[in-house]
Write a structure and sequence with these properties.
The complex is a heterodimer of chains A (about 170) and B (about 600). By secondary structure, chain A is an alpha+beta fold. Chain A has helices at about 20-30, 60-75, 85, 105-115, 135-150; strands at about 10-15, 40-45, 50-60, 80-85, 90-100, 120-125, 130-135, 150-155, 160-165. In chain A, strands 5, 6, 7, 8 and 9 form a 5-stranded antiparallel beta sheet that branches. A 4-stranded antiparallel beta sheet of chain A has the order 2-3-1-4. In chain A, β2 (about 40-45) and β3 (about 50-60) form a beta hairpin. With about 600 residues, chain B is an alpha/beta fold. A 6-stranded parallel beta sheet of chain B has the order 3-2-4-5-7-6, with helices on both faces. Chain B has a 6-stranded parallel beta sheet with strand order 11-10-9-12-13-14, with helices on both faces. In chain B, α17 links the parallel β15 and β16. Chain B is about 40% helix and about 15% strand. Classes of the chains: A alpha+beta (about 170), B alpha/beta (about 600). At the A-B interface, α1 and α2 of A face loops of B.
Amino acid sequence: MTNNNLIERHIISVLVDNEPGVLARVIGLFSGRGYNIESLTVAETDKDKNVSRISIVTSGTPMVIEQIKSQLGRLVPIHAVCDLTEMGAAIERELALVKIINHGDERIEALRIADTFRARTLDSTLNSFVFEVTGNSSKVGAFVDLMRSLGEIEVARTGVSAISRGNQIDLLAK
Amino acid sequence: MPKSAPASASNASEMMMPGAEILLKTLEDEGVEVVFGYPGGAVLPIYDALFKNNKIKHILVRHEQAAVHAAEGYARSTGKTGVVLVTSGPGATNAVTGLTDALMDSVPVVCLTGQVPTHLIGNDAFQEADTTGITRACTKHNYLVKEGDALQSTVAEAFHVASSGRPGPVLIDLPKDILMAEIAYKPDGVRQKAVARYQPQTEPSADAIKAMAAAMMRAERPVIYGGGGIINSGPRASELLTELTHYTGWPTTLTLMGLGALPASDKHFLGMLGMHGTYEANLAMHGCDLMLNIGARFDDRVTGLISGFSPNSMKIHCDIDPSSVNKNVAVDLAVIGDATRILEMLLEELKAKKFKPHKASLDKWWAQINEWRQRDCLKFNQSSSVIKPQYAIKRLWEMTSDRDVYVTTEVGQHQMWAAQYFGFQKPNRWMTSGGLGTMGYGLPAAMGVQVAHPDDLVIDIAGEASFMMNMQELSTLAQYNLPVKMFIINNEWMGMVRQWQELIHGGRYSESYSASLPDFVKLADTFGMTGLVANSVDDLDGVISQMLAIDGPVIADIRVTKDENCFPMIPSGAAHNDMLLGPEDQVEKPISEEGMVLV
């Protein structure tokens, strides 16, 4: 019983027809039924078949997660729904662009930390940098927190994109 | 400007015609015979094409909400998809309540809405509304046709989506310039392509059926719990349910939406279950060891307090919608598929395995159920000359039981009494707003039913408050001479609200009195129809016979006791075995704090 009430974080990938309103439909489903969206990304994956892939990070009890997947599955423009967390090993990545304004020692420290995180410097002035960092959410979050303590920052983050390990295609367009 | 096919058709078999005509042709291809609608600027091209069209009959309503409810009544009484035609802006927004109703009760409806021309969308044009945005949450699916080439296939897909899998309302938003553009009509191949992307599972898995049959063979205190999904699947599903009930000898209960799936007179029928269901049905559900749900969705009106719902039973859920499974109640076995196919395969499997119920256990279970039946939970006391509402409905049923009758209701106490006292022997005879509980549903729905069945008896059992919500449709009844019988249970209060205010809110009757009611007899008269009134028990039978004998629409104002409460009742926050059976119970079992918060 206790297991069934534990909130779990799941990454759900959905293959959808790339038609106007499809994103609004998915988001409307989540907000209408009170499901949580931690992050969401969407982009076209197959121009010929006109399909896009939506990656949603959500959280809820196991019963809620099952509901989210079946509710998504019954939308007309949805081709396939895949729970990457349930399937096991999945690779998660997100990207953040971090602008930091500082000088002196803190500027040098920022550069050193960026190096440690294997972040790339995309822009530089005498008192600012723009770094690009990729990794899973916790790595990106850690980087942002460190930068925040070193100067004035601005952050633009993408959502989480994910794909399963191995040689199986999870989402097939109909 | 919208893209449309070039002016000269390259293929000799493709004809060029305005979008509005393509629309009507596609409706004809889909077998549409009736459209319920109301004109407006954005849909003038369609109305122009309708003027010359002999195949599709248009019923002009007096409010767009009524058009959708009429389409629902039409759909539920025939199994066909109801069709609505309304204009942009307010026309579309007026349809929202009806669409939400159809979504909650899984009724197949296609709603065509006009829209401003494509180049004006988003400009706050006259009578513009973000129809697809607004209706995204209250339809099964919706479309905005932005290109003429997509018109035909969109309509074909819409009908397919509305009627496949779990039925529901589908909206198509049609900009006026698309309706006026010259487009090529494709006579074949459109439908095959249109159905490709939506293919819900209807065929159940053979393994699931085997597991279900195996579980059934072990059951000692079983109950079959049937719902609206059986009705939606078609009349064959109801025949198969009856066959299953007789083959197994199992007690069967039905939800509000499922009434008629098993004949009410069948000795296995326990009556409706749920908040106002019978004592025996609710206790059987509570005490069973196997619950076989076919086409129902474990709605909160049925389950009551979920933690106390049938705690010791194995639950099998047969549903065509996978998202319905494990939504409210965790079940032990799910069988996804169409009810007719599930029942067919189940009966085959049971016969192949030579199913025999455990006679001793089943007899003992029936003995317990029959003991519960002794409680006679639906009895009431018609002692004085003032008509009791239960008596009025029971008499109506008794006096119409010799013929085929279609019943719609509004929402409230009268709706529950109609469900309790009107015995439905066949499916598709009972049309009521279950999931959304829309007051004002009954009269327009009855209109839709009468249009589908012009020679049959159609009765709207109404409360006087609900009746006022869509009474402008009396004009529609008069225009088309639809002989709907409006049986108004007039207690001068919004009965169900008043009951809850009595039980839960200390008798503070806030805004639940029906003030300034019209004289219903004079109201009928102003629309050129007959009005009758029954003031006492002595009047009742005479009014009913007169109502049935008159060849035309009739309003019967049945004046009943004002303070009758609807029992049994499982108060919100209580479990099945905590039913209130009558006024005596009210004091002993007050409603809890948690219960008060629930609707």
